[in-house]
Amino acid sequence: HRFPLSLQVAFSAPVGGSDRAVRSSGIQGINSLSFGNKSWIGTALACDSKAAAQRGHVCRAVQQSSKSKVSVVPLDLESAKEPPLNTYKPKGPYTATIVSVERAVGPNAPGETCHVVIDHGGNVPYWEGQSYGIIPPGENPKKPGNPQNVRLYSIASTRYGDSFDGKTASLCVRRAVYYDPETGKEDPLKNGVCSNFLCNSKPGDKIQMTGPSGKIMLLPESDPNATHIMIATGTGVAPYRGYLRRMFMEDVPNFRFGGLAWLFLGVANSDSLLYDEEFTSYLKQYPDNFRFDKALSREQKNKSGGKMYVQDKIEEYSDEIFKLLDGGAHIYFCGLKGMMPGIQDTLKKVAEQRGESWDQKLSQLKKNKQWHVEVY
Predict the structure, then answer these.
(1) Is 334 a catalytic residue?
(2) Active site residue 65
(3) I want to staple 240 with a disulfide (CB 3.0 to 4.6 A). Which of 58, 97, 219, 230 is the partner?
(4) The domains spanning 75-213 and 217-375 adopt the same CATH topology
(5) Burial, 7: exposed, middle or buried (Cβ in 10 Å; 0-12, 13-18, 19+)?
(6) pLDDT single digits (tens) 47-92
(7) Is 297 known to sit in a ligand binding site?
(8) Active-site residue flag, 376
(9) Would you say residue 261 has pLDDT above 90?
């Protein structure tokens, strides 16, 4: 997903409303990964690409039921003590190459979200939870003669990328489309410049890139048995895909995850679910280490009969969540900034019901570095 650095059209869906789908399909245990019509050797599994084509959305890499993990290289990406930061800056961006752009939602998802794989040649390394900046082509309309502003996108892959060789990164991009409120028709002049540039890109296209940036969403790894509660709306799921691949898909010698990862994902409907096959595979293989709860605002009702949003799911499991936080769990929020007021209200209400002060609790969570928020 992306963070605007200046006032730009938001391109993710409202709280509980997002876009993208991937549903269960046939899976074959083989030694290469099929991603659309491309395949990379050395992965643990491929999906039934014919079935994926019939469904009209992307086939994701998942693991074999034997729990075998994917070998990753180069392992010296583990050796740095600090995350890389701002290796490339706006005045001297890196020229990367598009590997693939795939629609990541089903036909009934509102809007379009794309999974974009970028080849950086291993020259712009990053850690899970960081962002890249993308500079779309053309000149800045507010500063003629100058390049466009940088747009930040959360990276949706681990540091090894979808090809597990440390040379690519993936972005999860919601195409920002503007509809005229009077006519109801699309106005291409007001569409999001960068999201449409990325979603329209073709393999081999060159893109200008900055970063990586960000430290707030880095995955704390000092305790491999910690609990991580991840809350996302729409494309806000991007950093969590990286976390979960690192925990459950990749064979990383110095990080053997034995804790609990609990993902809450809010989207509009089933066709809007992102990386669903991938996440569902972890449930099957690591039932003691992974939980996955979905809030489908257009398909599910909350206990009051209204639309089901992520904060409703949080309320449903609030006792467990609060106990886990008291035990030192990390909690992450990523998505549109409009998601936070409803979530904060819910957490405050639950705290008061428990006889606690939410303000004090939040202050303590921040002090303990358990609270991680990146919204846009």
Answers:
(1) yes
(2) no
(3) 230
(4) no
(5) exposed
(6) 343 334 333 344 344 433 346 899 999 999 999 999 999 999 999 9
(7) yes
(8) yes
(9) yes
